[in-house]
Amino acid sequence: MSSSETHLSDVTEPMSPEALETRLREIGEARYHHRHPFQLALQGGELDRCQVRAWALNRYYYQAMIPIKDATLMARLDDPDWRREWRTRLVDHDGEAPGEGGIERWLKLTDGLGLDREMVRSTRAILPTTRFAVEAYTHFVRDRTLLEAIASSLTELFSPKVIGTRVSGMLEHYDFVSEETLDYFRPRLTQAPHDAERALAYVREHALRADQQQAVLEALVFKCDVLWTMLDALQHAYVEGHRPPGAWDGESGLIAGATP
Ligand SMILES: O=C(O)c1cc(C(=O)O)c2c(n1)C(=O)C(=O)c1cc(C(=O)O)[nH]c1-2
């Protein structure tokens, strides 16, 4: 691994917006979860049904907390134009009515995998690391500058590619998933590029000083670490077999009639 991948070199002089964007994209290339072994195993068909269920169960907590994170961020935006822009994210996840939106579509994924909704929604069986990582993200957005909070969403610049690879790999390799089960991801392929483009425009416009640019780069590194850590936890518990006490046992909380 080259030093540019392992260390974030300090920003000493202000960069142009183009140079800043290049640095952000380099960070994504080196640190985004498209490189994680669990993601590679998921898309490569190397996981069993229990491991795929564990992924969907844990990722539900991320989905459920994203609108809370975005509501926190929105409350800090004093410009109505930006609030209007940001609120589409809430609608994307919560829908306009019960039964709509991204959280509901994620539950269709966990339904399709045979997981009981009450168990999924309660989040009681998720890994402690999943909880800590997702909370770290929501706290970061609450506590850091607005610029850093917005920059931390920039992982979405890289999500359409990993989603495309994940969906096609899962459809190819697992007979227990279908296009319908993976329907969550379809709208993300248009929502994510729109959201990321707006967040990037904000960052390019507002990160002008060297210290601001440094903070933006570090915010993206932080968010890559959040996503990476969530997959590390799944790898440790469900691939290497070190399941922490209280985490889903791979057997309970299944819908009646689901394949064990
Ligand atoms: O499937 C993925 O790999 C992936 C990654 C990310 C991301 O990069 O944070 C998000 C999503 N999906 C996603 O579905 C989503 O709604 C989302 C919101 C955000 C955010 O930080 O506000 N990231 C992501």
What is the total domain count?
1
Overall shape: globular
| CATH class value | Mainly Alpha
Total of DSSP H or I helical runs spanning 4+ residues: 12
Average pLDDT works out at 96
Task: Report the order of strands and helices.
Answer: HHHHHHHHHHHH
Low-confidence stretches are 1-5
Strand percentage lies at: under 5%
Known CATH architecture: Up-down Bundle
- What would you call the structural class? mainly alpha
Keywords: Oxidoreductase, PQQ biosynthesis
Function: Ring cyclization and eight-electron oxidation of 3a-(2-amino-2-carboxyethyl)-4,5-dioxo-4,5,6,7,8,9-hexahydroquinoline-7,9-dicarboxylic-acid to PQQ.
Pathway: Cofactor biosynthesis; pyrroloquinoline quinone biosynthesis
Enzyme class: oxidoreductase
Explain this structure to me?
The protein is mostly helical. Helix 4 packs antiparallel against helix 6. The chain starts with a helix and ends in a 21-residue tail after the last helix. It has one domain (14-239): Heme Oxygenase, Chain A, CATH 1.20.910.10. The longest helix is centred in the C-terminal third of the chain and has 30 residues, at 210-239. It has helices at 3-6, 17-31, 37-43, 49-75, 80-94, 102-112, 117-122, 128-143, 146-151, 159-173, 185-206, 210-239. Pyrroloquinoline quinone binds at residues 66, 102, 153, 155-156, 159, 162-163, 188, 227.
